[in-house]
């Protein structure tokens, strides 16, 4: 566990030093989130997520959104989900509706999880079938007896533009998850978000903080005759 944490903080340090002398526009942001989930049955799970994001050195409100989701476990390693996101942009004062489809695959080789997620985004008012395709690869250290679970991930964004599909953004994330108990979990992470193939690219250094609460479904009492 100590070796894993040392490697984790080395990754965070290298992300913080990345591109400090670059001419690309840079900003520091803070992303806060909280979510509630509930297992409906052996296959279906419901979740509602609320998030708030700050920009311009975390001094001004950027966006807020609420996102209910329904996921289906195809196998123990393979899962798919569909969600709706209602997003408010404080800068442009715009409300955006978004449909999100996610497909996750996780390969477990104890005590590590190797994951891949494919995500499709569609915003309302757009004639395109899909606006953004996102491919994310993740690696996490996870053991039942350890409450702390460090992980890293890399995600590539490919946008549907007038001139065709173009990869234009990448995210690198290092995150620590802490399990308080069976129902409560905390997360703290650091993200480097870097744009490219754009006329005015931007690089964001983002602090992530989250909380998750899991509702335990009550078992039906057997009626006595």
Structure description:
- With 225 residues, the chain is mainly beta.
- It is 7% helix and 65% strand.
- An eleven-stranded mixed beta barrel has the order 1-2-3-4-5-6-7-8-9-10-11.
- The longest helix is centred in the N-terminal third of the chain and has 16 residues, at 2-17.
- The model has no long low-confidence stretch (mean pLDDT 89).
**Residue-averaged pLDDT, rounded?**
89
Number of domains: 1
Q: What best-fitting shape do the alpha-carbon axes yield?
A: globular
Number of helices: 1
- Estimated share of beta-strand residues: over 45%
CATH class designation: Mainly Beta
Distance between the termini: 53 Å
Order of helices and strands: HEEEEEEEEEEE
What is the architecture at the second tier of CATH?
Beta Barrel
**Rg:** 19 Å
Jot down its keywords.
225 residues; mainly beta; Porin
Quick summary:
The protein has 225 residues and is mainly β.
Secondary-structure topology with pairs:
Blueprint: H1 2-17, E1 25-39, E2 44-55, E3 60-73, E4 78-89, E5 94-109, E6 112-123, E7 132-141, E8 148-161, E9 164-179, E10 184-195, E11 202-215
Parallel strand pairs: 1-11
Antiparallel strand pairs: 1-2, 2-3, 3-4, 4-5, 5-6, 6-7, 7-8, 8-9, 9-10, 10-11
């Amino acid at each position: 566990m100590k070796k894993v944490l040392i490697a984790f903080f080395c990754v965070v340090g290298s992300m913080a030093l990345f591109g400090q002398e670059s001419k690309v526009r840079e900003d520091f942001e803070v992303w806060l989130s909280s979510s509630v989930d509930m297992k409906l049955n052996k296959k279906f799970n419901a979740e509602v997520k609320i998030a708030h994001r700050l920009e311009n050195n975390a001094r001004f409100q950027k966006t807020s959104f609420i996102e209910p989701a329904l996921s289906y476990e195809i196998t123990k390693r393979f899962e798919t989900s569909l969600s709706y996101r209602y997003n408010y942009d404080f800068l442009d004062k715009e409300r955006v509706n978004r449909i999100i489809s996610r497909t996750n695959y996780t390969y477990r080789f104890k005590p590590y999880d190797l994951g891949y997620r494919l995500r499709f985004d569609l915003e309302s008012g757009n004639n395109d079938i899909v606006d953004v395709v996102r491919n994310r690869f993740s690696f996490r250290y996870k053991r039942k007896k350890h409450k702390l679970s460090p992980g890293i991930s890399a995600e590539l964004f490919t946008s549907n533009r007038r001139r065709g599909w173009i990869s234009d953004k990448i995210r690198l994330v290092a995150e620590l998850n802490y399990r308080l108990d069976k129902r409560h979990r905390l997360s703290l992470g650091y993200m480097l978000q870097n744009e490219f193939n754009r006329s005015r690219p931007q690089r964001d250094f983002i602090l992530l903080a989250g909380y998750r609460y899991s509702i335990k479904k009550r078992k039906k009492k057997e009626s006595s005759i």
